[in-house]
Every structure is written in structure tokens, then in C-alpha cells.
Amino acid sequence: MEEKKLNFLEEIIEKDLAEGKIDSIMTRFPPEPNGYLHLGHAKSICLNFGLAQKYGGKTNLRYDDTNPVKEDVEYVDSIKEDIKWLGFQWDKELYASDYFDQLYQWAEDLIRRGLAYVDDQTQEEIRAGRGTIDTPGTDSPFRNRSVEENLRLFREMRDGKYADGEKVLRAKIDMAHPNMMFRDPLLYRIKHASHHRTGDKWCIYPMYDYTHGQCDSIEHITHSICTLEFDVHRPLYDWFIETLGIYPSHQYEFARLNLTYTLMSKRKLLELVQKQIVSGWDDPRMPTLCGVRRRGYTAEALKMFCDKIGVSKRDQLMDIQLLEWCVRQDLNARSNRYMVVQDPVKVTITNWPEGKVEWFDCPLNPAEPEGATRKVPFTGELLIEKADFMEDAPKKFFRLKPDGEVRLKYTYIIKCNEVIKDAEGNVVELKCTYDPTTRPGGDPSQWRSVKGTIHWVSTAFAKELELRNYDRLFTLADMSQVPEDKDYKDFLNPESLTLAKGYSEPALLEDKSGIAVQFERTGYYFLDKDSTPEHPIFNKTVALKDSYKVE
After folding, report:
1. Is there a contact between 299 and 87 (Cβ–Cβ < 8 Å)?
2. Could you tell me where the beta strands, DSSP code E, fall in 132-264?
3. CA neighbours within 13 Å on the CB side: how many for 67?
């Protein structure tokens, strides 16, 4: 078997280890607790934790909790649950807020060295003063305040003397720098808001660019792995570390996950929840990890998907069918099988002894023919799919038709002798006879076969189900290409959820596997959390087959 080629991050790590730059690898996963994790985060989780595992290192979970207005303990807890569900365990649970005191001291140090100042300009004035890519910025009128005045004002900011937005602390670097990130970036802003961990201790909070690298440095993160949009931030990341003279963590960027028919914007996902366009963060149509988990996607399938798409430095739009293929591959190998009829027509077996019930031992998974089985009851009145019967059938229709034969899966061959219709001409019942010599495992000398095999359930034992059939949430393949005159919500798929009724064999409701099951000949379905014993609800995870080809 050909050895798998290293990705560029693995090459960097192996080189650093070989040259003795580091003794061991230390990574971190740094989510902001302002929403639920989505599929894009799954790629980052698998990358950060996976690299550390491969090279015998460790990974910290560090919450980027520097904006108390948008953050909540609900999100903190959900992030931990999602990481554990994916099968990873962090070394230390840390928070940017753990370092607020140290970050503040470093800010004062920058002020003393003439490298930071308090600015009274408004947000709009600061933005205008930054200039453009083609034109340099202009100095703030407050840029040359004395060290003493800046220290006094910054401490007054900390002590709550000023209102939100009245002042900010900025680094003093270069207003004409070609990288606009260096044009006196903001270090602190005033926010009179209670923090989920520090309460009301602080009313000033550090900005991301000032916080991230220093947190990495404190934790001795060897490889700080970010998505590609942060590559322009890296020089500033390095500037703070070098200027403060602290542990030299370094940032590396990879392409984020973009998926067809999917949005990964937390802001837009939050809007879908708040406007009740979806039922919540864990709506099975959402790309959140709790959403796809509720739909029936497995952690193993997501990790397979992340491995398939690989790690690159170039943004690309991945086909959602690859993700669905991975889900199907994983479930096909592991899920239990059951028969469920969704659009039924009654079949009466006229030569079946009245009141007789015959129980068949049927495999739970054909991949394990000697494995576990379930008991399926067979009686004289059954339900089959309407689509499995055709009155005027074409030549190559191998399911049930008048005077035609078909095998009922796991059991006998039946023949349709009579079609009963209602006053409108709709087929409501099929009267059939069964051939008792065609029971599987019977006398080999009497065995015969037919081309068609269909699924069925016994009417007397059928369990009624609510089926929630989910499709893609959006109709536009590339949601980053929404036209300027349109809103992203204009592309919501009105058929993203359809409700149906199903009738299952009784063993389905005794399934304790904890993963999606296969409705034979139909698709994979997962028991929803809203289910009760009296009202079972199943979410469609993925169709049984697809034309998608994996390269």
C-alpha cells in the first residue's frame, strides 16, 4: 500500500522536531464561546488534536472569551461536548480571561516604552484615519500623549471612569505601514458588561490580535494553527511576541472548510435560530456539530471526511456529497437494518392460515451473517410500498404486478391474484397467495427464485413512526456567491424538511445501537431526541445511494 504523503503542516512539524527546534509539539483549539461549533470547526479540531496525537504532543482547549457581550456558558459547555463527541480530549481547559491580569501588565509595559497610547477618537474616525491599501493613514491627534498621561488615562479606563467607545488603547507602530494591520491596531476597548467568568472585575477587554499570540506564548504553543484569513494577522502576532520578548510561538494557516449548499457564518446561523427559521442550534439541517449529530452523522464519518479533504493552503469549495458519502460509508458498515414502509398498500395473503404468526430470524447487518439477528413477525395481512406494485407494468418491472411473483424479503414468494380499488380507482388492497415451499432454508430441491425482492411489515405488529425527511438548507451551491441584490435567506430551500408517516417492524423500537439505522431499500434514519415510546420520531440521515464518485 502506498504510503500517505505528508501535508505541509506535518512536514513543518517533522522538520522542527528533527532540527531540535522543539522537544514536543503543543497545539491549541481556541474557539470563541459565542455560538455552537460547526463543520468548519470539526476540521480545525481534527487537525489540532490529530497532529498532537500523531507526534506525541498535547492540545489545550482555550476559549477566546474577550467579548462578554456575545459569550455565554451555554456555548462553553456545548463546545466541550462536541469535542468529546468527536473523540478527542484536551490537556488543559484554559481561557483568555485567565490571562487578563498579565495582558494588562504587558499593555502598561508598552505604554511605558512609548509603544501604546490612549486614543479619544470615535470608531469611525479611527477607521477613516487608517487610510487605504494605496494611501497611508494619518496620525491620531492623541498619538503623542506623554507616557504619564497615557498610563493615567488607561488606568482610568480600567477603573470605569469612561463610557463604552469613549476611549481605546492603541499600539503605536506605523500609520504608513503597507500591512494595514500595523497602522496602530487597537489593543483594548471599553465594554461595561459582566463577563461569564470574571464578572464585573473588568470593564476593558483586550482585542483578538493583542490577545491571541500572547496566550499562545504563555502556554508555550509550538504550532498555532489558524485558518487562512488570519495570514495577514501573522506579522502582527509575531510583532507582539518579539516586542514583549516572550516565548516565540508561531502561527501557521490552512484553508478553512467551505461546503456546498452550506453556511458557516456564526452570525447568520444565529439569525436563523433567532428568527425561528430553524428549530434551534441543533436543528438537523444546521451545519453545527450538535445539528449533524442529531441528524445521525457519526464522529467517525466526520473524521473520515476531514481526512479525505486533506490540508491545503488554498481555499476551495468542497462538495457536500463527499461528506454524505463518508456518512454512508460509515453507516453501511455498522448500522442495523430494519424494514419500514412509508407509503403503504395492504396485501392480504388468502391462503395463509387465519391467526397464524411465523417469526423469522433476520440478520441485523448483512456484513455479519453470523452476527446478531432480530425477530420479524409474518402474518396473513401485510403492508408494502405502493411504488412496489404496478398494475400496467413495463417488461422490466421486477416488483409486484397482477399475476406476477415477488419475494417478500427474508420470507416467501407471493403471487398477486386480485387488485381491489376504491370508488376513485385507487388501489387499496392486493390479494395474493404465498408459496410455502419457498421459505428460505427449506428443502433445497424445491427452491426457486424470482427476480424481484421487496420489503414489507406485518399489519398486526407494525409500529407507526413520524419521519422527518431532511434535505439541504439552501438551494444555492456556493453560498459565498449570493448576488448583491439578494439576501442569503432568499436561497432557503422550502423542501428542506418534509414530514411523513412510516410503519416499521417491531424490532426497530428495541434498537440500542446508538447510531443511525438503515431502513432497507430507503435510507439511514436516526432516532430523534423528541421521541417518546408512544410517538417515535426518526430523522433522515442520508439516502441509501448516491451517484457521487469519490476520486
Report:
1. yes
2. 168-171, 186-190, 204-206, 224-227, 251-254, 258-259
3. 12
415 sits in which H/E element:
strand 413-421
Q: Tell me the β-bridge partners of 427.
A: 421
At residue 19, the pLDDT reads 95
CA 233/CA 176 separation, integer angstroms = 17
Q: SS3 string of 356-392?
A: CCEEEEEECCCCCCCCCEEEEEECCEEEEEHHHECCC
From 354, 398, 390, 380, select the one nearest 434 (Cα to Cα).
380
Averages of pLDDT over runs of 10 residues in the chain (551 residues) are 80 95 96 94 96 97 94 93 97 98 98 98 96 96 98 98 98 96 98 95 97 98 94 96 97 94 93 96 97 98 95 90 96 96 97 96 86 95 96 90 95 96 94 94 79 96 97 94 94 96 97 96 96 97 80 61
Q: Among all residues, which ones are annotated catalytic? A: 32, 256, 266
CA distance 79 to 36: 7
Nearest-angstrom CA–CA distance, 54 and 48: 10
CB 468 within 8 A of CB 523: no
Provide the whole-model pTM: 0.92
Start-to-end CA distance of the chain, whole Å, equals 17
CA distances from 50 to 300, 306, 311, 505 (A): 13, 11, 12, 41
* Residue that is written with C-alpha cell 485567565 in the block: 98
